[in-house]
Design a protein that fits this description.
523 residues, alpha+beta, 5-stranded antiparallel sheet
Length: 523
């Protein structure tokens, strides 16, 4: 007989493999380069109560927020075999509107609800005031179509009227329909694999392994937190601006450690803002949880048990817990990064010889949308990597996606094939990492030429101040955005704000310089 410890580990990998295979299905069947090439998607498996069982190694900001959505959905929906529920509402556990979640129930061989498979994918356009649905909005309604929890598939029957309604309100309906069908296919893969496991091992054995894994993760997280120096640790950092006139927006955090638990209190953080940098509570919890998970040994399963010892307090109406209706597109991609910077800065007080300096602190969001010469609509979205913060034992990596983003870049070949765009330059910004005993990683320079008139939108951070260094290390170099118009070829490009949206003619050249990471230690 296999010892329980070995069996538990085998089942841990079996559960992870369900989510991993879902991800492979999604990226291979998706239409858009953003999902197929950049892999801007996440997959997970939950128990019947909506508690996280396992996830694939996908996007941290997606996955850490998912449990709040499942906590809302699991008891409120009348689940039937072959159902699928769709939702993107940021105020019931979503992240921002482009991230569409699809949830499918799984029933055991005797017809009882056993759990759920779910995925979340970033769609390159979901309507709203600007192509790409990531513009400088002032309310949620400007950011795209809001989809409350509703059945996309009802007992095996696709809800065509719902799909038609959604696709009629986006700029690229063919691509959206294809990506949604890919999300359904991914869940079908996951449900099929779970049913195979249930038939092979039985629901009772499977549930016992799930419970054991959750208990193990909670114990490991409490043991980790108990081993940290007890006390209160504070840190603050700032967002550049909200794109609507508010500048230097503080995120203040006090972390209390002791007794095998951690409390993250954001009292003193800026009030929610008019611009789109408000982070829904699900995103804030996701970013906080991520920082603790980074400290856990790799063999500890990441599931609902990890969340139990972690408390997040954020006053309603502040930047990291806005009231419903606030614009949130950048809260998911930009504010989440600054929450991580602040959380790690606070934890550095407890673990000065472990915590790295700040990484680039932005996802450098770029959307370009318009019409091709053939009269076809297009919407391109990408996040761009930068420098990672240096640590006590190493230099920071250059040109990578950091922390809450875990995507790839869009390959030049795919980008130029799908869109009327040309990549003129893509390289590291040598020397942009912060100085120190260990240097921060370098940022990236990415230069794109428009081959058709288009609307360009930038949602970027760390343009006013670079990522902080630690232990005497220097700050990383801030990023910058620039535009050269066709009649200015050979001249100096003009600087652009960190958050802006504008129409540009064919021949315009956009240059994005991403921040370098902070340095660690005195050089």
């Amino acid at each position: 007989m296999i010892p329980d410890s070995i069996a538990d580990e085998i089942f841990r990998h079996l559960f992870i493999s369900v989510a991993e295979e879902m991800g492979v299905t999604l990226e291979r069947t998706a239409y858009s380069p953003n999902i197929k090439e950049r892999r801007d998607h996440s997959c997970a498996f939950f128990d019947r109560e909506g508690r996280l069982v396992s996830q694939a190694a996908h996007i941290p900001v997606h996955l850490g927020a998912f449990p709040l959505l499942m906590e809302h959905l699991a008891p409120r929906v009348e689940w039937r075999p072959e159902d699928a529920v769709i939702c993107n509402d940021p105020f019931v556990g979503g992240t921002h509107l482009p991230d569409l979640s699809v949830v499918t129930p799984v029933f055991d061989p005797v017809g009882a609800l056993f759990g759920f498979v779910a995925n979340r994918a970033h769609h390159a356009d979901v309507g709203g005031s600007t192509p790409g649905s990531m513009g400088p909005a002032t309310e949620l309604f400007q950011e795209g179509v809001i989809v409350p929890p509703v059945k996309l598939v009802d007992a095996g029957r696709l809800n065509e009227p719902l799909l038609d309604l959604f696709c009629r309100n986006v700029r690229t309906p063919v691509e959206r329909r294809g990506d949604l069908r890919a999300q359904l296919a991914a869940n079908e893969t996951g449900a099929r694999r779970l049913r195979e496991l249930l038939e092979a091992h039985g629901a009772e054995e499977m549930q016992a392994r799930i419970d054991a894994a959750r208990d193990r993760s909670e114990r490991a997280t409490r043991e980790l937190l108990a081993a940290l120096p007890a006390g209160e640790y504070a840190f603050e950092d700032y967002l550049d601006d909200d794109g609507q006139g508010a500048r230097d927006l503080p995120i203040r955090l006090r972390v209390t450690l002791g007794g095998g638990s951690a409390r993250f209190d954001f009292t003193g953080t800026a009030p929610q803002t008019r611009g789109p940098l408000n982070a829904p509570l699900a995103v804030t919890r996701s970013a906080v949880t991520y920082t603790i998970l980074c400290l856990l040994p790799e063999e500890v399963p990441f599931n609902q048990g990890c969340f139990a010892p972690i408390e997040v307090a954020a006053p309603e109406g502040c930047l990291v817990n806005p009231r419903p209706g606030a614009a949130v597109a950048g809260g998911n991609v930009e504010t989440s990064q600054r929450i991580v910077d602040v959380a790690l800065g606070a934890l550095a007080g407890a673990l000065p010889e472990l915590i790295p300096a700040a990484s680039q602190g932005t996802m450098n969001n770029l959307t370009i949308g318009g019409w091709t010469a053939e009269g076809e609509p297009f919407a391109y979205y990408e996040t761009i990597g930068g420098g990672a913060g240096a640590g006590p034992s190493r230099a920071g990596a250059g040109g990578i996606h950091c922390h809450m983003s875990n995507t790839r870049n869009t390959p030049t070949e795919a980008l130029e094939y799908h869109y009327p765009l040309r990549v003129r330059e893509c390289r590291l910004r040598r020397g942009s990492g912060g100085a120190g005993r260990h240097r921060g990683g370098d940022g990236v320079r990415r230069e794109i030429e428009l081959l058709a008139e288009a609307r360009v939108t930038l949602l970027t951070e760390r343009r006013a101040r670079g990522p902080y260094g630690l232990a005497g290390g220097g700050a990383g170099g801030p990023g910058g955005n620039r535009l050269t118009l066709p009649d200015q070829q050979g001249g100096r490009p003009r600087p652009l704000p960190g958050k802006t949206s504008f129409d540009a003619p064919a021949g315009a050249i956009l240059r994005i310089d991403t921040p370098g990471g902070g340095g660690w230690g005195e050089g």
